[in-house]
Design brief:
189 residues, four-stranded antiparallel β-sheet, 59% helix, 13% strand
């Protein structure tokens, strides 16, 4: 009897552990929170995007909810500018003056990336403020959307709107919102 109870307890605990998503490292110094911002399905990802925006967590949307290759390419386009800004700021600090070589370059890159992510978050926030219908649409898709899963991609549509959709991509077991408006394959990584 004891063995069967112990075996049952081990079985239950191991199945719970297997159901947990793998540990996701912080991205852009933003910790991943799979309990608060779910990404197990496209629907959950969209609800997480809407929730993060409602909490003014645009940094979280960028780091963990938008499709990573889009974010990377977007940041790459402006990274050199932000590294120049970071270089000036790091050089003015006592800690920065002590750094040399690879350590200095790594610090400049880290600070530049932080500035870059903050700028992208601010741009997203301003765009949603200027075009408030976009957030209303996201909320409506989250409530009423019809989700079509096609393996590692998915589409959300509204029954009464034929010319718009949201697109999702599954990467390493998590669903991400893609930044595209047309029904065409996303750019390959």
């Amino acid at each position: 009897m004891r063995h069967s109870i112990a075996f049952s307890a081990i079985f239950v605990l191991s199945s719970i552990a297997c159901a947990q998503p793998p540990d996701v490292k912080p991205r852009f110094d933003v910790l991943h929170n799979s309990e608060f911002y779910r990404q197990d399905t496209p629907q959950e990802t969209l609800k997480s995007v809407v929730g993060a925006i409602g909490r003014d967590r645009f940094d979280y949307v960028i780091a963990h909810l938008l499709e990573p290759s889009y974010v990377n390419s977007r940041l790459l386009a402006t990274q050199s500018y932000f590294e120049r800004v970071a270089s000036n700021q790091v050089a003015q600090t006592a800690g920065g003056r002590r750094l040399q070589g690879a350590e200095l370059q790594a610090r400049i890159q880290q600070v530049g990336t932080s500035f870059n992510v903050k700028q992208l978050a601010e741009q997203m926030k301003l765009k949603l403020a200027d075009e408030s219908d976009n957030l209303k649409d996201l909320k409506r898709f989250a409530r009423e959307g019809v989700f079509m899963d096609a393996g590692d991609t998915a589409t959300a549509t509204l029954k009464d709107v034929k010319d718009r959709a949201l697109y999702f991509k599954k990467v390493e077991g998590r669903w991400f919102l893609e930044n595209r408006k047309e029904d065409k394959p996303a750019a390959k990584e």
